[in-house]
Design brief:
Chain lengths: 223, 223
Amino acid sequence: MPARQSFTDLKNLVLCDIGNTHIHFAQNYQLFSSAKEDLKRLGIQKEIFYISVNEENEKALLNCYPNAKNIAGFFHLETDYIGLGIDRQMACLAVNNGVVVDAGSAITIDLVKEGKHLGGCILPGLAQYIHAYKKSAKILEQPFKTLDSLEILPKNTRDAVNYGMILSVISCIQHLAKNQKIYLCGGDAKYLSAFLPHSVCKERLVFDGMEIALKKAGILECK
Amino acid sequence: MPARQSFTDLKNLVLCDIGNTHIHFAQNYQLFSSAKEDLKRLGIQKEIFYISVNEENEKALLNCYPNAKNIAGFFHLETDYIGLGIDRQMACLAVNNGVVVDAGSAITIDLVKEGKHLGGCILPGLAQYIHAYKKSAKILEQPFKTLDSLEILPKNTRDAVNYGMILSVISCIQHLAKNQKIYLCGGDAKYLSAFLPHSVCKERLVFDGMEIALKKAGILECK
């Protein structure tokens, strides 16, 4: 590996997680997101270290910030899973024992035991369920309704659709988690977390993993 | 109510359940289905009693068999649910205590206690999940794969998608059922039943409900 610049503090660099819809950044402890069209406007001066699951958005980042560095090769997550997304790998790297849920445009559920990734499964993103309901029957294309609780059984179509979607996602996570701690990240983390007693929202989970990876690679100094 | 012909035996009439995709029939103890284009070819001679959730398919039936009778008005299911599909009502009418799952182009899950419908929820049909996955990310549009068990955690994208879909449906049903008996009908009933220990497949469930309704209305003689 070539000699690389080393940073004494997270403050001196910018972390970037390139997703399928948005591009997420962590600058020190500030989090912000951008569409690929707005990247230039961000005017980032510091060195960018990134991961990406979307080639097109990655190109857009490199177009604006040609020195940004992909850190996918700088770390290793122990797993037998073939094709595990780099964002899922980073989130799992930040958890030693527990269940990692990334609830974004898809919902990924991964199990980690003593730092080893044991496997995981994928559900559609909450906003994407509408397409499956619409194809099931026209009347099932219902507007999203936030639920306060799953205690009361639905008594109309709109509630029945929203309840089914949330209960199936929640009970799937709980079935896999059993009594383990649940770590949630992604846009729907906060909403889902309210239904999961043993869970914590960790907005920075992917960035926490990136920080660990940079430390292991010696790019960021361990304090 | 006008005087109606009374039948001594189920053998003397044909039951019909008009769905969104197919039109299902029960002739004595034989079950068969038809697309609306093929109805004429069936050449049914006996009197038809039907329920319908699809206006277009209903018109097609009446076009071929103008004497067919809609029995929706002939019965009552105790419920506070507004807009409960007539097929769900009929399936629930056939169960006194338990959970009724109709796994077709949508998956409906309904709870019945001492003959009263307590409420229920709706999930997309298994075949319809593909549309939600596709919208979540292109790579998640995976072909359906039948799973033998949910014991082994997925270690690739195709398994992760199929496992997530099945586990979320199964764990949702189990969460609602607790220790109650689960009655499954619809095209995917047999497949789902294999993952649900306290379940029975009842292919005729909707027709059993229709038979009860006809008996209560005095159209079919009680033996």
